[in-house]
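# step 3/5: fold
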Amino acid sequence: MSTVETNMGEDRKKKLLKKDVVSAFWRWTFFSHANYNYERLEATGVVHSMTPIIKRLYGDDPEAYKACLKRHMMFYNTEPHIGGVISGMFIAMEEERANGVPITDEMINGIKTGLMGPFAGIGDTLWQGTLTPILLAFGISLGIEGNLMGPLIYTILMFGIMFPVAYFMWMKGYSLGKSGIQSVLGGNLLRTIITGASALGAMVLGGLSASFVNVTSPAVIKVGEVQLGVQADILDKLLLGLLPLGVTLLTLYLLKNKKMKSTNVLLILMAIGVIGGVLGIL
C-alpha cells in the first residue's frame, strides 16, 4: 500500500476528540442516576453519557446509530466514579468497532457485565465505606459545635477528591481499552487496597459510633444498703460504651441480616428509646 493510500485511510478513520470523551464523562457524572430504574438501572444514564460518542462515530449511519443505542440500553449498574473506568473501556471499544475492528455486541456487553460488579464493590468500599465516613467525621465534629465550616469543608473535600479520581478513572479506562481488563484487575495490589480500605472504613465507623451514638442508663440497682449505678458501676466496668455499641450492632443486624427497611429500623429504635425512658432504664 502506498503512502498516499495509507494517509487517505487515516483521514477516513473515525476518531473521537478529547472533548467528546470529556463531555461523556460530565454527562455520566451528573446524570448516571437521573433515570435510575429497576428494569435497567443505569442504562439510560449510559446512553445519555454516550450521546457525543455515538454522534461522532455513527452520526452518518442511522442504522449503526440505532444499533449502538440499543446495545447500551442493556441492564447496567456499577459505582459511578471508580466504575467510570468501564465506560472508558467500552467507549474505546466502540471507537475501534466504528473503524472496522471485529468487536461484537457480546464483547462490549461482556466487558460491562463482567466488570460492573467488581468495580461496584471497589467503589462502594472506597467511597461509602471509607472516604465518606472519614470526611463526615471532620464535618460533623465541627458542625455539632455550631461551626458552619463543618458542612462546607465536607462538601469541598468530597467533591475535590471525587471529581479528580472519577476523571482519572474514566480517561484511564479509555486509554487502556480492551487490554485494560488485565492491567486493572491483575496482581494483588488491588486486593490489598480493598482490604486496607475496608479495615480503615470499619475503624472510622467504629470511632463515629463511639463519638455520636449516645445511650446511657440512669437505672440504679439496690443490694441491701449498697446502690450500684447500672451505667457507671456495671456497664462501664465491663466495656466502656457498651450500650452505644449494642445499639449500633442491633441496627446493623436489622439492616444487614434481617433486610429491614431503614424507616422500620428507625421506628424500632424510637420505640426502644421511649419504652426505656418510661421505665427509667435508658
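# step 4/5: annotate
Residues 7 and 13 are 10 Å apart (CA to CA).
# step 5/5: archive (pending)
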